[in-house]
Design a protein that fits this description.
Shape: globular
Oligomer: single chain
Strand content: over 45%
Number of strands: 11
Order of helices and strands: EEEEEEEEEEE
Length: about 130
């Protein structure tokens, strides 16, 4: 089992930046692809960004491409999402997820991630 704990959410003005992080424990972290999904009120949970278990590939939703950067530190068992140029439509609960050796297009598939954190709220005011 993999336990995931997010941190770093909060309130920020449009155009600002925020960094959310996820600390993992349990199974060897380096075997897991890591992703961030988000869920806005009244909407389904959607893919935001992912990084392969090797760290060699990243993937982003079109809505965040060029503004968000995902990174991982296998020595510290952490994954982070740096969010710049935030928009009100980025407001959501952000969830960290871990998927065993997920690769390729499946990095964006919610069904491929078996382990989830409790989420952290990000609110962007206009």
């Amino acid at each position: 089992q993999v336990q995931l704990v997010e941190s770093g959410g909060g309130l920020v003005q449009a155009g600002g930046s925020l960094r959310v992080s996820c600390a993992a424990s349990g199974r060897p972290f380096s075997n897991y692809a890591m992703a961030w999904f988000r869920q806005a009120p009244g909407k389904e949970r959607e893919f935001a960004a992912a990084i392969s278990w090797s760290g060699g590939r990243t993937m982003y939703a079109d809505s965040v491409k060029g503004r968000f950067t995902i990174s991982r530190d296998n020595a510290k068992n952490t994954v982070s999402l740096q969010m710049n140029s935030l928009k009100p439509e980025d407001t959501a609960v952000y969830y960290c997820a871990a998927g065993f050796r997920v690769e390729g297009p499946a990095l964006a598939w919610r069904s491929r991630y078996a382990h989830w954190g409790q989420g952290t709220q990000v609110t962007v005011s206009s």
